[in-house]
Fold this sequence. Notes:
The protein has helices at about 10-20, 30-40, 80-85; strands spanning about 1-5, 45-50, 50-60, 65-75. By secondary structure, it is an alpha+beta fold.
Amino acid sequence: MIRIATEADAPKIRALMQSEPGFWKQYTRSNVLEIEIAAGKDLALVWEEEGKVLGYACAHDLGFRAYLSDLIVANYKDMEYLDAL
């Protein structure tokens, strides 16, 4: 199911991002996802199945211009990280 993301989704979104080599940068501030979700409002979305976040997208509408800040989908060939969630 695709639904609007909440701050409570941040740990699972972070785990998804960290599962993709090179996606998550070590120096990223600890609350970046909470800030992004709040700023994206109803344009921050998660794809969730059986309590597991399999995808995340966040966009920002600036009125005259919009942009996609993040887009990630779990790799079905390598989803071991989901078992830990």
